[in-house]
Design brief:
Length: 792
């Protein structure tokens, strides 16, 4: 047991003692704490120290990290010895969640790392107590600095905190003063808009700029930067360069150094990679050269202050909702962007955050108009020298505002990813069940007669569509139906009603309409699907005055098909940076794996579990990439049963969160899909095992794949060998580049899909991969032995 006494915000005394439990410790407790049975055998019983403990704390406030557990346990033990503990109780977990809203986890160990608390022997009583005391003092100091206006609003919700935790806020409120450092908007305080600093010029020499950032250029990186600087002209320019050479700094420093590049827009495949570049490369350049940079996302990423104010005015009995209100109030004092992704605990209560997300609508007469984060983001996109966005939002923005790219330079990074993004952009879907519920809620909330009639009419149309689907099996939706629906939806929007998915499916560019059903959370859902019949061409969306640069590891998909043609470009420049074989990476193909198809699916997943369990014994960081979320979760559940420690995307948090936890070493095994294939870098690991669980082929029944196949067949090309197989190989190479980000990084690639060894197209895969790495085809036993020797 460990106790730390605080008086007048100073640590004045400590007390510690072991307690003899008169029962053996579990192996887990021994490993966690370092305490042994022999040590506790010499310790006093609790009855011998109960009076000392009680007299030490009877007049104190009981502070603990998870006070509900600690205080209840101690109070029960003291009661059994005749002492009744009635001290007020304060929980530092809840206080940390509210007053440090940007943290991902709130364990004492994680907080000690973030806040530089002394925690030398974690999970020992006195060390944990001492760290908790320091945490409590830091919390008090931070709360004390908050403006009175915010503390006053926080106090309205403080009864939702455990026990007497609110007393920390109440005490701070008694001493607080109004602050003029913030802008007051109703119950909300936000930071004033930041002033723009004067920009510094970059050197015309790439290596000089890199040296100023305390980095050294690699030969391939320098060649890439030179190609970027030399070829950005009126023609679209495509540059092929292998992963891992530092392309981001290559194009950023080269282009920002050119005086005729007044505005630079960079589009990357995912929001995760967008955040990664903003936090690393863009921030470093902005801090050194005062380059104004901005991360541009869709409105749904930002908080809508007006919606949040309405929530603050509501009385909620739900303790979790009230604690999140408090957390957001504190976060608004700190954020400069209003990007809700800064709050890392969203996945615990996504429905709450959905109610305060921006919908893209803004009333100019609103109290919050001048400090609306989405509007500020939009304005920054018009003035910042460097704009980082993602492929999906780039297309949305250009469609809404074609002038956005005029007279700018556009870099499309990982350009091969924008082709499928174009197809996704050419489609939209509407969940009829969710839309009907929204319409009913709006009908109940409005008294305007015209609004009610429009809501009722749209609701009737969607209900009739749903009935026809289930009663008559009608999957096709008549064009006239969509024309009538679109008119009503437009009229409704003009009255101030906004439902994004409903508006999207009614856009005039769609020409195909059909219904599908899906099973979500054990409930059957009806989905209205819309699409354009032909492949979209990026060349038609980008204005002629925009100078475009496309960067990719592979531009020639096959001898018959290349990326520029698929994107609609005929007149373009092409540069290829010679690739370099990297000896610190090797590929093993497991020929003993069951095939992943048909009736062998269960055997295949069992084999994945067995191999991931074996690989975990090597005690190296392991990234396992899946093509199916369902398969990933199934494997994860089996690993849980075997008590194999791991992190799983979506199950244990969003991709960005669990990657950071993996990088910190919380677990040596990470299961991921989706964005982990597309550009998440693992540069911090000197050695790594990358497991490809399945060849990343496109689903042949997917509408996009069928559209591409139809296009290629009309050109007398083979859809599988000229497109599907090369694209799959490209994805493999992109994934392998995730663990090859610097020269001294070693990675073992293990492909657990025997099709790469036994199918008729296996030679094509092996030949393509062997261009960059050595390949070995073995059984798992030999692979384990070779990998263990490779990663010594």
């Amino acid at each position: 047991m460990g106790i730390v006494i605080i008086e007048n915000d100073q640590i004045v005394d400590t007390y510690e003692t072991d307690i003899n439990p008169h029962q053996p410790l579990t192996e887990h407790i021994i490993e966690l704490t370092g305490i042994t049975d022999q040590q506790l055998a010499q310790a006093p019983e609790f009855s011998q120290v109960a009076r000392t403990i009680y007299e030490l704390i009877e007049d104190c406030i009981f502070v603990a990290h998870n006070v509900k557990f600690d205080a209840n346990l101690l109070a029960e033990e003291l009661f059994m010895e005749g002492f009744e503990l009635r001290t007020p109780r304060v929980d530092t977990v809840e206080l940390s969640q509210i007053f440090y809203p940007g943290f991902e986890k709130y364990s004492l160990g994680q907080l000690a790392e973030h806040l530089q608390l002394e925690l030398h022997d974690a999970h020992t009583a006195i060390s944990d107590a001492y760290a908790t005391a320091q945490l409590f003092l830091k919390l008090k100091e931070k709360i004390k600095q908050l403006p009175r206006q915010t503390l006053s609003v926080l106090s309205r919700f403080a009864d939702s905190l455990l026990f007497e935790t609110r007393m920390v806020i109440d005490q701070a409120l008694e001493e607080a003063k109004d602050s003029n450092q913030f802008v007051v908007l109703g119950d909300i305080l936000v930071r004033p808009k930041a002033k723009k600093a004067p920009e510094k010029k970059l050197s015309q020499d790439f290596e000089t700029n890199l040296a100023l950032l305390d980095m050294e250029a690699r030969p391939q990186q320098a060649a890439f930067a030179q190609a970027v600087a030399a070829e950005v002209g009126q023609k679209p320019h495509f540059i092929q360069a292998q992963a891992g050479l530092g392309k981001t700094y290559g194009y950023l420093l080269s282009l920002l150094a050119q005086p005729d590049v007044e505005r630079l827009v960079v589009a990357v495949p995912t929001k995760l990679l967008q955040d990664q570049i903003m936090a690393k490369e863009a921030r470093a350049i902005a801090e050194l050269f005062q380059i104004s940079s901005h991360s541009l996302k869709g409105p749904g990423n930002y908080i809508k202050l007006e919606s949040f104010q309405k929530l603050l005015e509501q009385t909620d009995q739900n303790r979790l909702i009230n604690r999140y209100k408090m957390q957001v109030l504190v976060w608004l004092l700190e954020t400069e962007t209003g990007d809700l992704d800064e709050i890392k605990q969203q996945q615990r209560f996504e429905s709450f955050f959905d109610t305060i997300r921006h919908d893209g609508e803004l009333d100019d007469k609103s109290l919050f108009a001048s400090h609306d984060f989405w509007n500020i983001s939009y304005q920054k996109s018009l003035t910042s020298r460097l704009i980082i966005t993602n492929h999906a939002y780039l297309l949305t923005r250009v469609e809404d505002d074609r002038a956005f790219l005029e007279n700018k330079v556009l870099v499309v990074d990982e350009a091969q990813k924008i082709f499928p993004t174009l197809e996704h952009f050419s489609r939209a879907s509407l969940n009829l069940t969710a839309a009907s519920l929204w319409l009913e809620e709006q009908k109940k909330a409005t008294r305007d007669l015209l609004s009610r009639r429009l809501l009722e009419n749209i609701s009737f149309q969607l209900s009739h569509l749903n009935q026809n689907f289930y009663q008559q099996g009608r999957t096709e939706v008549p064009r006239q139906f969509m024309t009538d629906l679109a008119k009503d939806v437009l009229d409704l929007r003009q009255l101030g009603f906004f439902y994004e998915d409903l508006i999207k499916v009614c856009q005039p560019r769609f020409e195909q309409f059909w219904l599908e059903s899906s099973l979500e959370t054990d409930k059957r859902q009806t989905i209205l699907q819309t699409a354009q019949p032909d492949l979209m061409r990026l060349s038609r969306l980008i204005p002629e005055t925009c100078r475009s640069l496309f960067v990719s590891a592979t531009l020639a998909i096959s001898p018959q098909v290349d990326l520029p043609t698929l994107l609609g470009y005929e007149d373009y420049a092409m540069t290829e940076i010679a690739s370099q074989t990297m000896g610190q990476q090797k590929i093993w193909i497991d020929a003993s794996m069951p095939l992943p198809d048909g009736d062998q699916k269960q055997a295949y997943e069992d084999a994945l579990v067995q191999r991931l369990t074996l690989l975990s014994c090597l005690d190296k960081p392991i990234l396992a990439l899946f093509t199916s979320k369902q398969s990933m979760l199934s494997v994860s559940d089996q690993l849980d049963q075997l008590e194999v420690r791991h992190l799983t995307q979506d199950k244990n948090g969003k991709a960005s969160n669990i990657k950071k936890r993996f990088d910190r070493g919380e677990s040596k095994l990470l299961l991921g899909t989706g964005s982990f294939w597309e550009g998440v870098d693992f540069i911090d690991h000197d050695q790594m095992i990358l497991v490809i669980c399945r060849l990343p082929f496109d689903n042949p029944s997917d509408a996009f794949v069928q559209k591409v196949n139809y296009y290629l067949e009309n050109q007398s090309k083979n859809p599988f060998y000229d497109y599907s197989l090369p694209v799959m190989i490209l994805r493999l190479k992109q994934a392998m580049g995730r663990s090859r980000r610097r020269d001294n990084q070693e990675s073992a690639i293990i492909l657990l899909d025997s099709r790469a060894a036994v199918r008729s197209y296996a030679d094509v895969i092996q030949e393509a991969l062997s261009q960059d790495q050595n390949i070995s085809i073995q059984k798992i036993e030999e692979i384990m032995s070779e990998v263990s020797h490779f990663l010594i």
